[in-house]
Fold this sequence. Notes:
Chain A is α+β, with helices and mostly antiparallel strands. In chain A, strand 2 (57-59) and strand 3 (65-69) form a beta hairpin. In chain A, helix 14 (560-568) packs antiparallel against helix 15 (587-599). The radius of gyration of chain B is 11 Å and the shape is globular.
Amino acid sequence: xxxxxxxxxxxxxxxxxxxLLIGGLTASGxxxxxxxxxxxxxxxxxxxxxxxxxxxxxxxxxxxxxxxVAQPEIGQGVRTSLPMLVAEELDVAWESVxxxxxxxxxxxxxxxxxxxxxxxxxxxxxSITEAWPFLRDVGASARRQLMQAxxxxxxxxxxxxxxxxxxxxxxAKGQKLGYAELVTEAAALPxxxxxxxxxxxxxxxxxxxxxxxxxAHAIVTGKARYGLDTDVSGMKYASxxxxxxxxxxxxxxxxxxxxxxxxxxxxxxxxxPKPGEPYFILASGVAVVAExxxxxxxxxxxxxxxxxxGPHSKESTESFWQQCEALLxxxxxxxxxxxxxxxxxxxxxxxxxxxxxxxxxxxxxLEPQNCFAHVQENSARIIAPTQMPSGASRAVNEVTGxxxxxxxxxxxxxxxxxxRRLTNDYVAEAALVSRQAGGIPVQLVWTRExxxxxxxxxxxxxxxxxxxxxxxxxxxxxxxxxxxxxKYYRRAGVEADKMFEAELYVDDxxxxxxxxxxxxxxxxxSGVPRGSWRAPAHTANAFVVQxxxxxxxxxxxxxxxxxxxxxxxxxxxxxxxxxxxPTFNPWRLSRLLQHVAKEIDYPRKRPAGSAVGIASHFxxxxxxxxxxxxxxxxxxxxxxxxIVAAVDCGVVVNPRGVEAxxxxxxxxxxxxxxxxxxxxKDGQIQQSNFHDYPLLRLAGVPRKVECHILPYGDSPTGMxxxxxxxxxxxxxxxxxxxxxxxxxNLPMLDQLQRAMA
Amino acid sequence: MARNPQPSDDEIDASMTHICRCxxxxxxxxxxxxxxxxQKGGAA
Lengths: 757, 44
């Protein structure tokens, strides 16, 4: 997703906003309309208290520092890494830091709403990138306030003061004061217009140091609060029996048996969007409200519903691929056209061509969708695991009409996001249920089956690639034609000719490197809902491009690593207009490839049946590469002997966190490539749980998975999505090198065994 | 580990059958070995 959708402040930060965000309660009157601040509040206090400097920093009398985290934690580690930025510039010991999750903060303005705490959301691997200037400024400004308070007390100038962690010192006067003794005065001082100076990287004590997850102990002892842990006194529970046919509906309902189930309180229809309309929720169905989730689930089982099967009842995975083939037989929407591809193909010494297939996949977060909602006549309280709390507030406003000013959104930990929780459909459902049931506090719970069968799945598509190679082995022409079901399907405000933007990033490699290049998109019609799935479009495109590069190398007698290094070329910035730009430096991919190649001893000839495969890709501003070593047995038994992964995400804030994301992305890529797909038959999703959507378990993970971080430059990029796209192609390339079998359709399943039988 | 204080990698694979969606399996293996070492009284 695009970072620009989040309306975040960009450096340099508007001065009035700085004063608001750092200096305390009062905002300049020209920015804001008066409002009941308390109405926006959930668990924490309405205004910064006397121990707080602005919204983000509280210093307790015993010297402990509470740092506010405004972003949702979806397992990407921001509850640790973002406070590191504040703590560094504030100059406090990391061991003295505790964190507090902040709720959604929005403020009514003359013409809409604006952020109270800065932008909030987890998507597109942007949290660290956007926080890097902002939160460092927050910490540095708070530190300056503390220094000024001390300077005032000692009657010296600011320049005569310095800090050591947690302490302001004036050497000339031989004085020192702990932050706890200064905080009340510091918070009351006016905030200067010019930004506080930031530390030089050479002075970092915290940034760049490996830190464990700050609430690890709470997590492993069951104290961490996820959405499902929400427990509001008096709350009821609800679950929805959704139509199993895509865009189907309730034709008739007999709820007498359901109402008779002990604990069931209410049963009513939930009306979903009409076919083709934007998805405010995913499906129509019947809600059961009960005293417990068990009673709600039993109530659902007792419903007698006749379903209208909707307009997609003939759709199947087979029909989807047939549609792709028919589309690819004709011309599509040309979205990039450089040079003269046809001439390059006509004059080529060799033309290489291949087709690849990517299936739909499910997000499969370990915590199924859920949301607490208490909708009253003119206000609503939401407690949700969400990646977009502002979207949650908007979703509730859309389905209830309640003014956003009176909708509070508290964020719990999110048990896996992966892009699923960018869409707040389950929040809208909970609000609808709360209202319909009489304005009650209620927790809506999805079962695992609900979660597998109702999703904004990763788009499926068929890719056709063709390359022209000259007599010297240079790639002179390249075309990528993709027939896919765009994730912008039924998204309000997206024109038909822009639907391709979700599927193909026109500045992706090898654009601007291969002179004659054409990119084409064809729209596949499908009733399956689609949305953003970790590294949207990149998992599909990295698989096909990096697999095809190897096919081109082999067809023209070149080494795959040498071909890549030749194409990536010199250290320079190429334009990159899509998310993760504004530039892309392919040399940073070469650097990573050479590193993993060295680590895995790429040139060493392995015994027959064993080989190494490589891949590299630029994802949303970060660079990654994988080298995979496999052994393929005579019957096609696959053993993944070793994985070497490397990432360049710029400056590293928390190396332990970066490593965790790189390992996690590697495993996610492996799990998905080997075994995972969502299939459709007769207009219904076929999978339902982890027996037929088999996520990888520990036994399937290679014993040797090595992660390397290669820092670069002076600012960080994100890390949530960078580690996943290159695993699958590196694996497919290794399998080919070891066995001669080229796998082009994912998931791999037993294709290798069948090919070698 | 009460029954098998020094598990091998194969034994860990066979008994740790839960799902970890964040893909931290490599570190889970490492943690089991570390727990075994701590239990034995050695260095972590």
